[in-house]
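Milestone 3.1: sequence recovery, worked example.
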């Protein structure tokens, strides 16, 4: 075989190999980017979590400070027994939260239930909400209501006791936010309706410290 012919044959062979390799590379499915978080949380709560005249709320701060995925479903006026403007009770919020497919649902007890203290409705509502989470396959965690001074009103203490009892009955971890109260009066809005941004920051740190020991990384 002449040298010229040999060169041509080699060139054709190499070109064919490159074309085959290129075709193989093009036919491989591109790797799609994946977005996952080690902790994926949904928050159920009232105005303390939803915010009231706040520039920031604790669920947002929790996400920023931990890098976790945190979806906030809290609504003002909601509670285990209190229904706000209708369809806002914690059981309804749990339904919406489950639609986001979180790994963990955290319910934060609020003060809208004060009018139902000692009626048993708070305990029943708490048991229903927690049962729904457990049956849905998510990790359930519950935090009692907090306050901003001592002595703590009997109605607030009663709510916390009922929520703790429901949590114990469901085998769900409970965090007491009254012993001592998480907030001070200076960390509340002037009308005492909810935390200031500073108060929201305090709640975010308290919740983060607890969740680090409760959620799976």
């Amino acid at each position: 075989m002449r040298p010229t012919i040999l060169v041509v044959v080699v060139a054709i062979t190499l070109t064919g190999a490159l074309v085959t390799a290129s075709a193989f590379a093009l036919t491989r499915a591109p790797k799609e980017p994946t977005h996952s978080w080690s902790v994926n949380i949904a928050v159920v709560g009232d105005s303390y979590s939803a915010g009231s005249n706040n520039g920031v709320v604790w669920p947002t701060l929790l996400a920023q400070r931990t890098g976790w995925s945190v979806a906030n479903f809290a609504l003002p006026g909601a509670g285990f027994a209190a229904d706000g403007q209708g369809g806002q009770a914690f059981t309804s919020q749990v339904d919406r939260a489950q639609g986001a497919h979180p790994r963990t649902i955290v319910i934060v007890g609020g003060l809208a239930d004060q009018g139902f203290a000692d009626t048993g409705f708070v305990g029943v509502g708490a048991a229903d909400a927690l049962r729904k989470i457990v049956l849905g396959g998510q990790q359930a965690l519950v935090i009692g209501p907090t306050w901003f001074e001592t002595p703590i009103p009997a109605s607030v203490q009663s709510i916390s006791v009922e929520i703790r009892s429901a949590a114990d009955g469901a085998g769900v971890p409970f965090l007491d936010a009254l012993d001592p109260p998480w907030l001070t009066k200076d960390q509340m809005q002037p009308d005492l309706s909810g935390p200031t941004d500073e108060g929201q920051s305090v709640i975010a740190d308290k919740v983060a410290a607890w969740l680090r020991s409760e959620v799976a990384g």
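Residues 40-214 form a domain with the Rossmann fold fold (CATH 3.40.50.1110). The chain has one domain: 40-214.
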